[in-house]
Amino acid sequence: MATLGTEVQTPRLAAARIGSDVGLLLAKLHAAGSVLNNKALADFGLRERSFSVLTLACSGLEPTQRELADFLSLDPSQVVTLVDDLERRGLVERAQGKQDRRAKIIVSTAEGRRMHTKARAALDAAELHQLAGLTDGESQELKRLLRKALWGTAE
Amino acid sequence: MATLGTEVQTPRLAAARIGSDVGLLLAKLHAAGSVLNNKALADFGLRERSFSVLTLACSGLEPTQRELADFLSLDPSQVVTLVDDLERRGLVERAQGKQDRRAKIIVSTAEGRRMHTKARAALDAAELHQLAGLTDGESQELKRLLRKALWGTAE
DNA sequence: AAACAATCGTTGACTTTTTCAATGATCCGT
DNA sequence: ACGGATCATTGAAAAAGTCAACGATTGTTT
Predict the structure, then answer these.
(1) What is the mean pLDDT of residues A71-85?
(2) What domains appear along chain B, each with residue ranges and CATH number?
(3) B77 CA from C22 C1′ (Å)
(4) Which of A20, A21, B70, B72 is the most exposed place for a label (fewest CB within 10 A)?
(5) Closest chain A residue to B16, measured at CA
(6) Is the CB of B130 under 7 A from strand D?
(7) What pLDDT, on the 0 to 100 scale, is given for residue A153?
(8) pLDDT tens digit string along B3-19?
(9) What is the C-alpha end-to-end distance of chain B, expressed in Å?
C-alpha cells in the first residue's frame, strides 16, 4: 500500500502496455481509494467494509447476512465478524428472518443511523478527493460504466 | 471471493445508495476480475501479479524492483518473492542497475518473452469477457477514465 | 409424515497475504 | 571522509482469506 490519492505524476512504467490493463488499473485505483476511505472513516471507528454493512443496514432493504456476503464479495464468516463488531457497538441489530428463521436480518439502530450520516459525509468527501482529476460528468460516467460492467444495468 | 465475471442480474442490494459508491464498485469489479484473470493465467503457472512483473520485464523499460513495488502498489519484500519465483523459472533475470549499483533491474529472458506472449493472449481474452457487457467504445472510455483518475493523464 | 438433501449463520483451523523492522551494500550531500 | 538516505533482502508478527464442519431450519421426495 504505497500510493496516495492521485499520484503526483504519471509514473515512468505506465507507458508499458500493462498501463492499459483493466485489472491493473482497477487494482491501483482500488488500493489508492481504500487507504483514502479508511483514513476518512477512522474517525468513526469504521473501515470500508464495516461502513458498507452499516450503510446496507440503514438502507431499509433488510439484508440477510448471506445477501451481504454475496453483495460485498465476502465469505459468510467474514460477515459474522463485521456484524459482531457493529452489534457490540450498538450500531446494528440481528433480527430474525421473516420467512426463513435460519436467516438473520441486519437492521440499524438509531445510534447506527446517526453514525452513518456522519460517516457518509466523510466518505463522500474522500471520494470527491479521489476523483478530483475528473470532471463531474466524467465521475458520473465512470460510475455508470462500472455499474454496467458489473450488472449490465442499462441505467 | 464469491462472484464470477458478470453477474447474472442486478442484485437486490444494489438499489441502496452504496450501489453507487466508487469504492464498492471498484472492489467488486476488481474482485471479479481477479478470479477471472487468475483462472486464465493458471495454465501458465502465473497469477495477476507475477504476470504484471513479467510484462514490465518484457517492456524494455528496464524497471528496478523499487519501481515495480511503487507501480504495482506492493511492498518491496513482495516484489522480491515475485521476482524470485520468475527468476527460478528462467523467465526473468536480475541485472545490476546502471547508475545505481544497489538497484536490480528486472529483464526478461527469451523464454520469458515466449511465455508472456501466450499469457498476454489469455489475459486479453479474459478482460474481453469481463467487459462483455460494455460496448467497445465504453471499454475504451472506462480505461481512459481510470487512467485519468489515477494519473491525470490527458490522453 | 418421515426421511432426505440443501441452506443459513457460526465456529475453529488452516493457509495466504500484508505489514514492518532490521541489515549490508551503495549512493549522495556536506 | 563522514552521515544520512535509499536499495534489495530477510524474517517475524499481524491481518485477511479460505474452508470444512456443526446445529438449526427449510424445502423436497417418497
Answers:
(1) 97
(2) 17-122 (1.10.10.10)
(3) 13
(4) A20
(5) A59
(6) no
(7) 74
(8) 344 566 789 999 998 98
(9) 34
For A103-119, the pLDDT digits (tens) are 999 999 999 999 999 99
Q: pTM to 2 decimals?
A: 0.92
Compute the distance between CA of residue A32 and CA of residue A38 in angstroms, rounded to an integer.
Answer: 10
* B contact test, residue of A58, A113, A142 with most B CBs within 10 A: A142
Amino acid identity of B131? L
Measured between alpha carbons, how far is A57 from A53 in angstroms, rounded to an integer? 6
The spacing between the Cα labelled CA in A31 and the C1' in D15, in angstroms, equals 16
Q: How far apart are CA A3 and CA A61, in angstroms?
A: 35
Total CB pairs under 8 A between chain A and B? 227
The span from the CA of B123 to the CA of B129, in Å, is 10
Distance CA A17, CA A128 (A): 29
Q: Quick one: cell of A37? A: 476511505
Cα nearest neighbour of B150 on chain A: A6
Q: What is the C-alpha to C-alpha distance for residues A81 and A19, in angstroms, rounded to an integer?
A: 36
Interface test with B, best of A37, A73, A79 (most B CBs within 10 A): A73
B145 contacts A142? CB cut-off 8 A = yes
Poorest-confidence range of A38-52, A77-91, B4-18, B122-136?
A: B4-18
pLDDT of residue A5: 43
